[in-house]
Prior knowledge:
Elements: H1 2-18, H2 22-28, E1 34-37, H3 40-52, E2 66-69, H4 84-87, E3 90-96, H5 103-113, E4 119-124, E5 143-147, H6 153-166, H7 169-178, H8 182-204, H9 206-209, H10 212-240, H11 247-273, H12 280-304, H13 310-352
Parallel strand pairs: 1-2, 1-3, 3-4, 4-5
Helix pairs in contact: 1-10, 1-11, 6-8, 7-8, 8-10, 8-12, 8-13, 10-12, 11-12, 12-13
Amino acid sequence: MERSNWNHFGLTFSTIRELDVTAIREESERTPQIAVVGPRLLFNRVVELLRSTGSRRFGPLGPDPLFHQPLPLLELDLLADDDPLYQADLLLILVDGQQPLDEETTATLRRMARLALPTVIAICGVAAPGNPGPLRPEFAHARVVILPSLSEPTSSSVLAEALVERMPEALRLAAARAVLAMRPAYANELIASVAFVNASYSLASAIPEQVPLLAVPFAAADMLVLTKNQALMVYRLALAHGAAPDFQSRMTELVPVIGAGLVWRQLARTLVGIIPFWGILPKVAVAYAGTYTTGMLAWRWFADGEVVDGERLKELADESMRLGRERAAAMLEAAQSRSREKRSWWPWRRDSG
């Protein structure tokens, strides 16, 4: 058992050393453009919220992507081709919910919809209605968020989550690096996404690993893929929070931080690996939970310099495992449902041929 664990750790660090992270580093150095359209006073308040809320351990890096455009705008057709609005990757439209939309502003929103840009509309200063009904036509293309008060602690996270969701995926890392409030939303999305990817891979490789002659090679390949995905996730988290882009240095500093998570994950994988057939579900759950735990530990380190240990680490592991079991059960049920559909469909296709 001990020899197996040391081999796994050697494989882990060998895999990390061989990773090429050039593309991720270049991705973090892109320059996203977010056009914030609305009254100047509202722009000042919202942008200050986005710039000041969130991790400040490393501070924002890169050019500020947020720039102002007044509302209502001039006719879009009169703008020059090189106007910043046409270069924007995302529109954030600010609406004062305490003031009725005048005809000119409504017309502007309709015209802006023709730009076909990812759009977030933030309606500020009004409570969300209990039964909002259908969206107004000029809002139908956008993600709409209601911000009853910009002084509420949740306003920043609600808005940042919407911005990350609508930002083109290739620009999310750079946007989080430049805008403090977008970092937690980006980290949450990234960790959940990579954990799901690893769980999906673990599910796909689960059946061959139940065959004794194939178990060792498949388990080794499994470990390589999971380790690679986790290492790249950790590097993205580092860059998103403004850490220096030296990959090896980031991995080295994380060893004492995520070491406990790696040990916990490997122990769990070893235990469930000896369970035949019905062990598929715990195997997938552990792949999700181990990735989730690693991501959360790395996130807290890069965001606040926090090393989670003791009782809090146990709580995090328990929460990760609970989420892992839920995701694994849903994924396994979906896979079984697809399998049943294929079995019922195949004879019909054969007979019809």
